[in-house]
Amino acid sequence: MYYLGSGVPENDAEAVKWYRKAAGNGYLSAQYNLALMYYDGDGVPESSVHAYAWLSLAKTQGQADAASAPDIMKPQIAEQQTRVADSLNILKPLLTKQQIAEAQALASQCYESDYKDCD
């Protein structure tokens, strides 16, 4: 809503706040959208490391969702997984090995803290 200004004034910082809440509750699309906001620097400082971390979390979430989803949801989840994988493939060559390691550590820290320590 806030990202596109759909029914409310457009506000990237507010969008990040709500994406973060949804991402912390395991919503794959919110994790993906948060990654895009970090990549573009919309509402947060631009950070490819944070973008990669959130994409990594979204990839893991997508695998969990696919395993437990009813059959009717599987095509939608597969489409989301493809977007996440494509984004990871685009971003990975732009990062150094050190940045990828930093992003993976951040993703682990975020997941292990139940999404409370993601910065």
Task: Summarize it.
This protein has 119 residues and is an all-alpha fold. The protein has helices spanning 12-24, 28-40, 48-68, 74-91, 97-112.
Question: Would you give an account of this structure?
Answer:
This protein is mainly alpha-helical. The protein has one domain. The chain contains 5 helices and no strands. Helix 1 runs antiparallel to helix 2 (28-40), helix 2 (28-40) packs antiparallel against helix 3 (48-68) and helix 3 packs antiparallel against helix 4 (74-91). The protein starts with 11 loop residues before the first helix and ends in a 7-residue tail after the last helix.
Shape: globular
Structural class: mainly alpha
How many domains, in number, for the residues? Answer: 1
Distance between the termini: 24 Å
Secondary structure: helix percent: 55-70%
What Rg is obtained from the alpha carbons, in whole angstroms? 14 Å
| Beta-strand residue percentage | under 5%
Q: Count of helical segments?
A: 5
SSE order: HHHHH
Number of separate strands: 0
pLDDT averaged residue by residue: 89
Main pleated sheet = none
Low-pLDDT sequence parts: 1-5
